[in-house]
Amino acid sequence: MPEPPDNRREDLAAGNDPARRQRGRSRVLMTNEPRAYREGIAAVIGQLRPTVEVETVEPSALDYSIKRFSPDIVICSKATEVLKGKVRVWVELYPENGVLSVASIGDRRMEYTEIQLPDLLSIVGKAEELAKAN
Known about the structure:
By secondary structure, this protein is of the alpha/beta class. It contains 5 helices and 6 strands; from the N terminus they run H-E-H-E-H-E-H-E-E-E-H.
C-alpha cells in the first residue's frame, strides 16, 4: 500500500535551500513549548492558512532552523538574538511562563495578555503581507 504524502519531508527538503521555497508561500517556524501546544497550533495554522508552509522544531534548534528554513514568521517561547536579527515577524508565547506574549511585526512591538488563536492568525497574515511586499 503506498504511503500517504509526508508534507513535513517536503518542507524539510525545500527548507535546505531558501531559493527552493514554494512560489508565493510564506513560511511559519514553530519552536514554542510545550510540544503538544506547538504541534496543535501548527496543525490549526496549516488548516486555516493553507497558503503557508509550517515547520515545527524543538526550541533548541531555533537558530539553526532560521538559517535553514528562512521563515517569514517564528512562533517561539524564547526570542534569540539570531531571531531578532533575521526574522521580521515573530511571536514569543508566554516567555518564562509569564502571562504576556510579545509580538514583533517589523519595527513594531506589541504585548498580548492571554494571546488567542485569532491573534496568531492575524500576525501570520501580517507576515504574509510583508513577505509579498518584498
